[in-house]
Amino acid sequence: MSLLNELKRRNVFRVAIAYIVMAWLVMQVADVILNNIAAPGWVFQVILLLLGIGFVLTLFFAWAFEMTPEGLKREKDVDRNQSITHETGQKLNYTIIAVLVLALGYFAYDKFVLSEGREAALIDATAQAISEQAMTDEVAPNDIDKSIAVLPFVDMSPDKDQDYMSDGIAEELLNLLARIPELKVTSRSSAFSYKGKDFKINEVGRELNVAHILEGSVRKAGNQVRITAQLIRVDTDTHLWSETYDRQLDDIFAIQDEIAATVVEQLKVTLMGETPHVQETDPDAYTTYLLAQHQLYKRTRESYIEARELFEKAVEQDPNYAPAYAQLATLWLFESAGYGGASVTTEEAISLAEPLIDRALDLDPELADAWAAKGLIMRYGNNESGAISLFKKALKLNPSHSLAMNWLSLAYRETRRIRDELEILRVGHRLDPLSVPIASNLVRSLARFGYDEEADEVLEHLYNVNKGMHGAALSQALLLRGRYAKAVEAALNGEEELPGSIWTFYMAGYILAVMGEHAEAHRLDPWEGKWADFMVYLDENIRDPVQRLAQLRKYNTDELAPESQRSVMWAYLGAGDFANAESLARKRLESIAGDARQTDGAVLVLAIISFNQGERQKASAQIEILERVTDSNLADGDNFSLNYIIKAVAQSFRGEEASAYDYLAQAFEGKTPVPLESDSMFAIFTAMGWDENPRFRKLLEVWEAHNASELRKLFDLACNGKGFTVWKPLPESCEKYMTTGT
What we know:
The protein has 34 helices and eight strands. By secondary structure, it is of the alpha/beta class.
């Protein structure tokens, strides 16, 4: 008898299948239970190991032993004529079927019943946890005493050339204290906004909602460093503690540990564990790291490139310094998103960043920067659900990590959890009131919901912090209100206030493209055509579908970021090339993980293709979940025009054309008028055949008249008014708007 037949006779295969199915079920249940009791990660790993060992032992027993009416016997002791392996096999078949039914039942219950509630609970729990961190003394009077802001230390070196050192030491202290869960620490962006300004301690404490301020100075000469630190009680403006440290540069980590321990002692913080310690490194590597951080926070194209080169040097100087690996990984991801020279594609950036993040986490598993960067990779790879989980992990390790907070809000936006995005940004703004990215995105989110008064308050606050980024944020708010000319003016004024801030040009160029002025939009490209994704961002707004597709096909789709690939997908749909549109849509959906797959725009593309092929019911079924999410967003007050267009599409699928055009009218006449998501909107208009309908043409003509009016206002200001230092329109552009009145 062959080995295969003998394995079958002894039911080894059946036992293996039964074990695998049961083990899978055990792991699913264990995962739920362990998450609910907040068990450490190694517990699940131990269960996995035990199941693996048990699998081998089970197969051994299935081969060597046999179940008989008299009990378990060694197989060699059983007479073949009296063997009942066939009966045992039947019982195993029934067992496998029963366990499979149980497993499928659990899967269905988890997928269709628990999933939605679990996600909602996760969002609520996160918002609640972060909100508790942001409570004021009126809500939690005992917590305010355990709060502190670390202000940038003053450079007292003779040549005033050690700014990077003084800032870096203060930031390292801030990060060190932020790792203490019992202590509320204001983030860097808010604390460092006071750098170089005259201020009163009590005013800073009130603005940042903290009870204590840690400030100091650094004086470095050669390898000798003097650090002075003082802890101040805000309400009484009294010094609780002050100390001066004269040490060699090699002792700088010990100094930071001593300062952190003293702060904990002075604030009478009761720790659940030990006081965290600064990760030590080579003094030269540390100096390079601080120089890189200093360049990073300048936030210009040139400074991003220089920061990346310095982080590379730091990891060469000390291959075991985790923070440098995490920052270098983040900067490679930024590079693909246009923050530097845009020299790598998204795919290339991910391949460069992943091993750096793995190395950082190997060296320091509790490094929040590394987990946040890992979440950013998830976002770049279309796994928004995974990104959300990792951003929350980073925030748990460092609640003051404003970048992780901002990226979390963007992940919510991408998954169409618009209300969650707004609430998370509100929480983030309370935690970090001077964070420019959070404030900018909060303004955009508030404008979508029509909370103009609250948005204006945030804008006014942002103006006092960063006039350049205020211009970019104001530009977004004005764009959402349909005030295109003022939106371009705000962005360009922001660039004049803060030269080198690429995102002001980004906004101005995009709005000009939305308005149909592509020649002028490309002249404002700060990357000079080197960043293909920004070129797509501009060219997706070309009105003519054939011209739009012809322009976007010039770029290598595989090298574009997911958002840009989506624009190409829409261009194919708008041009009537359904085969390529469907191919890109299915490819996109395959790359998306989690529930986001059900609400992505690719689903809408496939549904519109089905509709054009005469399959109305199939089209309606394809966007059932997307429409449900859209209804929820509209009920929550999200006035974004794309919501109304999705509803119009759904109504057209049902044959309710009158209702569809009512929704289209709301899209054109609402608080956030067309075109904003113009890459998808104009493709939808064409693919649905609406552009041939007289009622729709009337809606479009009204918008086009408004757009023409805004163009005249803008070019009148740029050509005949005060103009802009950073943008002078081409003579032919001025002539067109001044002579034709277009």
